[in-house]
Amino acid sequence: MCAGAALLHRIPRVIISENRNFQGAKSLFSEHGIDVAVFADPCCIKMMRCFIAEHPTLWNEDIGRD
Fold this sequence. Notes:
The protein is an alpha+beta fold. It contains four helices and two strands. It has helices at 2-8, 26-31, 42-54, 56-62; strands spanning 13-16, 35-38. Strand 1, helix 2 and strand 2 form a beta-alpha-beta unit.
């Protein structure tokens, strides 16, 4: 939903705190001319890794996996 909102509202730049746990739509943004910056913040990487491990059902629902 975040990617769709950014494209719909023509957000010119997206900053991604981490994309090691989930790649998301980085290539989709680039294809549509949106500038993308990835910071690979260690704290965010760890937080997402822990969240996914602790709440796999919620995470899979959020990203559209069964």
